[in-house]
Amino acid sequence: MADPTGKVRVALLSDSDIPASFSVLSKSFGHDAPLIDNYFPNHDTPAGQAQGSARLAAWKHASPASTFLKAVTTQAGDQEQEQEHVIGIAVWTHMKEAPPAELAQTENVTEVWPDEADRKFMMRLWREYVKPRTKAIEESGGKGVYVLELLAVHPGYQRLGAGTALVQWGTKAADEKGVKAVVEGTPVARRLYEQCGLRTEIEEMQFEVGEEFAGRRKPKLLFMTRQPRA
């Protein structure tokens, strides 16, 4: 990793940034996040990264309510020229309608998860995953909520403020819209979210996936929210 020479900056993610951003996502989570491992199969392989990048691009094009962001910094490159480098990614969505409980309504499940057991497991995870945000949307009085659907920062660029900048971009937008900000966060990211004003509503989200999947790793996630501020 080269030493960064400038401050972290948040900008809109372009289509050309997606492969680099997906690589950041993969490196950020490694294999420590069961939801990411299941939602983006083989994300650390060339085939998995190609598929994951294509799915991110499709999501970006199909969801006008979502804002795809990148965190960038500059670093010294060849011949001492400064080069901009993507070190983080976030997706914020103003969600006014509950997400589909059935993953097949938003994904080509047979293509992404060709193994039947993997597919069934991911579909059951998804049904449980969307329950807290669905409840928050239903309780919003039609305003909806601002959901941090994805946040990742390259492990080689931690503690530069990229995560904070990406989260605060969304909480500011939520304040401007007068809606609650929500996130299904990992315990590792809890402190970051708390520093950005989010508070835990559900200490550990429940994932009831059936006895047949009792031996599989299930996500460990908190559901956190932040009321809009004037």
UniProtKB/TrEMBL annotation:
Extract the Pfam families matched here: Acetyltransf_1
Please list the GO terms describing molecular function: acyltransferase activity, transferring groups other than amino-acyl groups
Q: Which Gene3D superfamilies match?
A: 3.40.630.30
Enumerate the PROSITE patterns for this protein.
GNAT
Domain N-acetyltransferase span(s) in chain numbering = 90-219
Q: Which domain of life is it from?
A: Eukaryota
Identify this protein by name.
N-acetyltransferase domain-containing protein
- Fetch the InterPro entries from UniProt: Acyl_CoA_acyltransferase, GNAT_dom, Trichothecene_AcTrans
